Amino acid sequence: MTVDAPALDPPGTRPSGGRRKGRTPSTVDGRTVPERLLDHARILFAEKGFEGTSVQDVVAAAGVTKGAMYHYFNSKDDLLYEIYGTVLRMQMERLETFIAQEAPVEERLRAASADVVVTALENVESVAVFFRSLHLLSVDKQAEVRRERRRYHEAYRGLIIEGQRTGLFREDISPDLAVDYFFGCVHHAPVWWHADGPLSPGEIGDTFSRLFLDSLTAR
Q: Which residue numbers delimit the HTH tetR-type domain (predicted)?
């Protein structure tokens, strides 16, 4: 079954990047049209590459018309952006939850560190596809991604600074370098990790967070 485009969004509900805003999408086979498009775009981008995949490839695989796709997404760039944007927004929401908890800062940082590893590996295909093709996005979209990632890193860095101010973490370590070091490890993990390997995302997240906290803790 091919899904046609729904009625147009009200004026002013179309953002410059990512998914368009509007009424709640209808579902087909338990998934909304945007979810179907993103699922199939992710698979095709992984198999054929971003440049090797056409809009027609995506809509044919998802079983929708081009009109339906353009109702929700402005371009193929938006599909790629949203594949990662969905993960990043989820991670940001979870980080804000950890930050707001009434617990010692080392516990909140440990939980946040483990969580970002787990969520990255649980969404490894989305993360890998995006970073493999990031350079193909428009300059504006690349800048938008960097802004969102910077917002996450700055919130995460705030936990390190809080720990330094309370004397729990070493003051001779730059918070900026600590963030770069940790997320360098996180972003590299999808390169070598495999779902059928000996370690689960939870085990890797726990190990990464313990190693990182041990390096920060004042002796």
A: 31-91
CA distances from 211 to 53, 76, 177, 191, 200 (A): 40, 39, 15, 20, 17
Count of H-run helices and E-run strands, the chain: 9, 2
The CATH number that domain 77-216 falls under is 1.10.357.10
Tell me which amino acid residue 59 is.
V
Residue 211 is inside which H or E element, if any?
helix 201-216
CATH number of the domain at 1-74, out of 1.10.10.10, 3.90.180.10, 1.10.10.60, 3.60.15.10? 1.10.10.60
Which band of pLDDT confidence, cut at 50, 70 and 90, is reported for residue 218? confident
| pTM of the full structure | 0.81
